[in-house]
Structures are given as structure tokens and as C-alpha cells.
Design a protein that fits this description.
Length: about 270
């Protein structure tokens, strides 16, 4: 049987998402489907909008849009006219407690360095998944690549501290969050015997599973509390600076934990660290 792409009669299914994310994802799905219908294969949701544990004012609704190869130009991008039309319609969606909608348009075949969706950690809103799911081995390889290159302070943070605007500082803090949280799951990927199960955990549950060595668990807990406080109330430079400070501290702890394990000769190609 040949798998078909999304048809005009297909209805989005957002039932697995958190109640707060469902109206956002439903409206976004209709927009993506309308503007990409000739190429649309599938649309999935992942992240805290699905697993729970989202941070009001900070977390996004994470989506991946799978399109046939002919949708993309030579630079692997959608035509600008399509993107602008989508943007105009997305701007009308009330986001509720979420900060923004994040969506990547992807071809059927994986790009170099991309890991497939993690079993049990994504939900198909429309259509089908055209590529293989991630395996435990895929996740371990990705974790090693990420942690091998982890430095405490990202370049955009170091360079950005010389320029001030509250909106820019808020953005730096938010982008750092998207860099920091995967580090938590990368550690669990290498420290636990079932990395797929670890990626299904919401942030508080993932933090509870972190090793206590190098203060990784304690620093992750402080980072979560700092982010929740910073994005819950009035916009404040001091709060965003605190997010950046705690985020860099956590990245430093993660890098230290990984270096120590490598120095101890731990083989992360095994099924358990």
C-alpha cells in the first residue's frame, strides 16, 4: 500500500497536546496546511507543549513540517512568498501562555546531523512521518557530538553583553534556554540505560534524574526556577541577566561532568553509562 500525503479532508489531531497548546497548534496546523497543501506530508508536535512542563512566557510550541522535496529551493528553503503568507496568518493566533510558535520545514529525507523524532516524544498532528524515528544509538551519537562541543558561554551571549536593549536581552535569555535544556537531556542520554525514555520526560522529571556530581542537578533546578521567575512577571533586565548567569553556570557544569567521564575512560558507545 502506497502511503499518501495529506488530503483536503484530513483533520488536525491535537488531542495529545497539553490543553493550553491545543488551540495554538490547531490554528497553526490549518495555516501550514493551507499554504503548503501541494507538498504537505505531515506535521508533528514535540517538546513541552506535548510533554508538559512548559514555562509560561518562555516556552514555545514546537512543530516540524514535513514537505515534499520540490517545495524547497536550491538553498533548502521555502519560497519567500510562502513564508510571508504564513507569517501574516500566524500573527493572528493568540499564543496563550506560550512565547512563540517554532516550526522547521523539513524534506522527507534527513539532513546531515538531524536526528529523527523520538518515539513517544512526538505526536503527528497531520499526515505521516516520512523518515525513521530516532534510535537509542542515534541519541547517544547526537549527545556525544553536542557535549564534545559544549562551551560554558555561547558566542552570541558573550558578544551580546556589550549592547543593551531590554527586548534584545530578553531574546538572549530565551535563546539560551533553547540551548541549555537539550544539554540536560544529553546528559541523561549518556547516564541512563534508556535514552528514549529520558527524552519523554518533562523538564522537572528530567532534572530529578540528573546525577548529583558536578552540581548538575542542583544547577539545573536553580536554572528552572530562575527562568520561571524571569518570564512570569514584569519584564526586567535583572531577571534576564540572572537567567543568563544561571544558564552559563549550568552549561559549565554539564561540560565538566562530560569531561570528567571522558577522563575516566567511560565508553559511551555502550547501552548504559
Amino acid at each position: 500500500m502506497v502511503e499518501r500525503d495529506v488530503s483536503l479532508v484530513d483533520q488536525p489531531d491535537v488531542s495529545a497536546l497539553t490543553p493550553e497548546a491545543q488551540p495554538v497548534a490547531l490554528a497553526a496546523a490549518a495555516i501550514y496546511a493551507r499554504h503548503t497543501r501541494p507538498w504537505l506530508i505531515g506535521l508533528l508536535a514535540h517538546g513541552s507543549a506535548l510533554k508538559g512542563g512548559y514555562i509560561p512566557g518562555c516556552s514555545d510550541v514546537d512543530l516540524q513540517l514535513y514537505l515534499r522535496a520540490e517545495a524547497f529551493d536550491d538553498d533548502s528553503r521555502l519560497p519567500l512568498a510562502v513564508g510571508l503568507a504564513i507569517q501574516r496568518d500566524l500573527a493572528r493566533i493568540p499564543l496563550g501562555p506560550f512565547n512563540y510558535i517554532q516550526c522547521y520545514a523539513l524534506p522527507p529525507h534527513p539532513r546531515l546531523g538531524w536526528v529523527g523524532p523520538i518515539p513517544g516524544a512526538y505526536h503527528m498532528i497531520l499526515g505521516r512521518l516520512p523518515r525513521p524515528e530516532a534510535t537509542a544509538s542515534d541519541l547517544r551519537d547526537a549527545a556525544r557530538r553536542a557535549l564534545d562541543g559544549t562551551r560554558p558561554t555561547p558566542a552570541y551571549i558573550a558578544d551580546g553583553m556589550l549592547t543593551y536593549s531590554l527586548a534584545r536581552l530578553e531574546r538572549h535569555a530565551g535563546v539560551l534556554c533553547t540551548d541549555v535544556w537539550p544539554c540536560v537531556y544529553h546528559i541523561l542520554t549518556l547516564a541512563e540505560s534508556d535514552p528514549i525514555a529520558m527524552w519523554r520526560l518533562a523538564k522537572p522529571d528530567a532534572i530529578a534524574r540528573l546525577p548529583e556530581s558536578a552540581d548538575v542537578r542542583a544547577k539545573a533546578g536553580r536554572f528552572l526556577q530562575t527562568v520561571q521567575s524571569a518570564f512570569a512577571g514584569r519584564r526586567s533586565a535583572a531577571r534576564y541577566v540572572a537567567v543568563i548567569d544561571e544558564g552559563v553556570n549550568l552549561r559549565s557544569a554539564v561540560a565538566g561532568w562530560y569531561r570528567a567521564r571522558i577522563a575516566d575512560g567511560i565508553d559511551y558507545t555502550e547501552t548504559s553509562a
